[in-house]
Design brief:
This protein is of the alpha+beta class. The chain has one domain: Glutaredoxin (3-Layer(aba) Sandwich). It has seven helices and eleven strands. The chain is globular.
């Protein structure tokens, strides 16, 4: 039987060879805080707000890039809800954002109603927030400090298939590191459904292979620069 370390090396090699729509370099760590803070989002209920106003509501904010048509988003919804509930008392907010060109505020409102979502969904019209943070698929997550510093970008965990053994809770590790001031990986591979930028023809949303951006071997302290 292969050792766990051997399996891990095989998995990393697979991530490097994945044929993903997310293969181009991400721009999250070069995001301009001033332009980021001024981006305006519209919720399925409540008043519009800028990203800066949303960030000011918590010590740290997890932006979850969301899509009504993505099966990966459906699969992870329960884990996102549990994470939001567990971390709210610790000063961490969870904000779900739709950046797909084909989604409207009305369609998001209907999806939220049908799925009994308790938090508002936020519409990123034009996909500017996704572009600024380098999110190219759903449900990619990006953890930001109150000042707009990107601390982590990637996937919630390493589960590529439902129920896969050996789960590693990447986002939760980053949250614990942020809260406790310990070191953590600032990025991970991403899967999911490609965020559409235009209304040109696309295949139906489907979870795609991992991006070549593998888990960072350089740990990042909560106050450092990823």
């Amino acid at each position: 039987m292969a050792s766990s370390e051997s399996l891990r090396l095989v998995w990393v090699a697979g991530a490097l060879l994945g044929l993903s729509a997310c293969a181009t370099p991400h721009a999250a760590y070069g995001a301009n805080p001033s332009s980021l803070h001024s981006l305006r989002l519209v919720p399925t209920r409540g008043a519009p707000a800028t990203v800066g106003e949303l960030l000011a509501r918590a010590d740290a904010t997890v932006f979850v890039f969301w899509s009504a048509g993505c099966p990966c988003v459906r699969r992870y919804q329960g884990r996102i809800d549990a994470l939001a509930e567990a971390w709210a008392p610790k000063g961490v907010a969870v904000v779900e954002v739709s950046s797909n060109a084909g989604e409207t505020l009305a369609s998001l409102q209907e999806a939220a109603r049908l799925r009994n979502l308790t938090r508002p969904l936020w519409r990123d019209q034009g996909g500017f927030l996704a572009k600024e943070l380098g999110a190219r698929s759903t449900p990619t997550v990006v953890l930001l400090r109150r000042d707009g510093q990107v601390l982590y970008r990637g996937w919630l965990d390493n589960e590529r298939l439902p129920g896969e053994a050996g789960r590693e809770a990447w986002l939760e590790h980053a949250l614990v590191g942020f809260r406790e001031g310990t070191r953590f990986a600032s990025k991970s591979p991403t899967w999911g459904c490609t965020i559409t930028r235009t209304l040109s023809a696309h295949d139906a949303p489907a979870c795609h292979p991992p991006s070549p951006e593998v888990a960072s071997s350089t740990a990042t302290p909560s106050g450092g620069t990823p």
